[in-house]
Specification:
The protein is an all-alpha fold and about 250 residues long. The chain folds into 2 domains: about 90 residues, no CATH class; about 150 residues, Four Helix Bundle (Hemerythrin (Met), subunit A) (Up-down Bundle). About 65% of the residues lie in helices and about 0% in strands. It contains 11 helices and no strands. α2 packs antiparallel against α5, α6 runs antiparallel to α7 and α8 crosses α9. The chain is elongated, with a radius of gyration of 23 Å.
């Protein structure tokens, strides 16, 4: 099985890469194919490539790496220490920064929402950002849909469960929670709430354009992790705002 399919997250892939280099640096004969797959993955990763050691991209084979590390350090001990130090930024990022502080706040708020479906959708889109941008964008849209339907269901508000679109779901929740711009007098609230509508509509359109809900032939561009992160953060912020407003305004 190819190593990228065998390892299911970026931290374990990075550890496999370091261990593979350490093995070669100390006289071992690890898989050249595994090295090629892992090297290609991290060098081409938009977010993680900047955390790689400066010398790494130039090492196109394990033999090249062997010559490089041998010229730099005569002893195995020095080589092992050097590799851990050089890959420390990447490993630390993957070990400790999987979820940002903002994402932690959103997740806590959704736990209070008492909806297993909401938490499942949130977990799914956070996990997909780096490895599957298209899936993360689709999941962010699904998160909002889950929250909106949960609110309507809990307030006994009927809607078309088969064909209703995300903007229409949001309009129904807007009206129920008093979040429509026309329900407010202050211009600043009108502006902010109008922006919220734009976020929901944009996420629906972004999912249709860049998500994985359609065949590849229908997509002319591929999203980068930064696009997925934007969708995830917008969807998470809106989901938390809607959940908190739902709890703050009991149904009549």
């Amino acid at each position: 099985m190819p190593i990228l399919r065998e390892l299911t997250d970026d931290y374990n892939r990075a550890m496999a890469l370091v261990n593979l280099l350490r093995d070669r640096a100390t006289g071992g004969s690890p898989s050249e194919a595994d090295f090629a797959d892992l090297r290609r993955y991290f060098v081409n990763h938009e977010d993680l490539s900047q955390l790689l050691p400066r010398w790494f991209a130039a090492q196109r084979s394990l033999n090249q790496f062997w010559n490089f590390i041998g010229d730099e350090f005569p002893s195995y001990r020095e080589r092992r220490k050097y590799l851990w130090n050089e890959f420390h930024p990447l490993l630390t990022r993957l070990e400790t920064a999987t979820v940002s502080p903002a994402e932690e706040d959103i997740e806590d708020g959704l736990k209070a929402f008492s909806s297993e479906g909401v938490n499942r959708a949130w977990k799914q889109m956070v996990q997909r950002v780096g490895n599957d941008p298209e899936g993360a964008i689709t999941a962010s849209r699904n998160l909002l849909e889950t929250v909106l339907k949960h609110i309507l269901d809990s307030r006994n508000i009927t809607y078309d469960t088969v064909s209703i679109e995300l903007p229409d779901l949001y309009k129904a929740v807007q009206k129920e929670l008093g979040l429509a711009p026309e329900q407010h007098q202050e211009q600043i609230f009108k502006q902010i709430l109008g922006g919220c509508s734009g976020v929901v509509n944009g996420l629906g359109a972004m999912r249709n354009r860049l998500g994985d809900a359609h065949g590849v032939g229908m997509r002319t561009v591929r999203p980068a992790p930064r696009h997925a992160r934007l969708a995830v953060n917008l969807a998470g912020s809106m989901a938390l705002f809607l959940a908190e407003t739902h709890h703050a305004k009991p149904a009549d």
